[in-house]
Hints:
With 255 residues, this protein is α/β, with parallel strands linked by helices. It has helices at 18-29, 42-54, 71-87, 112-133, 159-179, 200-203, 206-214, 224-235, and strands at residues 9-12, 33-38, 58-63, 92-97, 137-146, 185-191, 246-249.
Amino acid sequence: MPQLLTGKTALVTGGSRGIGRAVAERLASEGAAVALTYNASRAGADEAVAAIEQAGGSAFALQADLSDAGAVPDLFSRLDRELVERTGSTSLDVLVNNAGNSGWGGLADSTPESWDTMFAVQARAPFFVVQSALSRLADGGRVVNVSSAAGARPMQSVPVYSMAKAGINNLTRALAMELGPRGVTVNAVAPGWVRTDMNTAVRENADLVASIEADTALGRFGDVSDIAAVVAFLASDEGRWVTGQVIEASGGYQL
Length: 255
């Protein structure tokens, strides 16, 4: 079967573990040269790059603390150097804004500091990552933002996270209009319950697991590969006529 992204370059933020790693591995398996960012997990990033290379793909990792607004220009300076060395150009074909952070505060226990940190990574960083990518992003390129089902159906227990993801959904539609004249598509993928480190505590509660699975049309938690498959479709030419959409990939949760 032909690879869908042969000759393309991709940047996946937060690509050292979880959904981001699965996305990086899937895009690389489709032929893209993948740059992935990590914050603290250098070992995880190295493992992701090694797994991609062992499978015959091409990847490299760049450290970036996206809670720091000043990290974005520096990230792209280093990305430029790596891409020129590897491909001879700074051109970027696919951008996946996936980086996230934990600290799901509720109404009673959130602080201005925790609110700012959540929005810095979940909402501010994608905006300025796209801004920095504009001069590198090829016409006909792809932007995929990883949102959450909570962006459309807010969760009472995590109002700040839900607000931030709603902002990503709105940004996705605005960017689709902004970049459409260049043939660039911009979409968001909104996972439901997926087996990641973020919800380990939930998955250790048998009653909660049973309730979630009973409320999901396909009857199970998602796997990171389920989300990566949707991102890969949107990143490829197969998704060329889809833009400005928030695609929920939840297995039919709470239908």
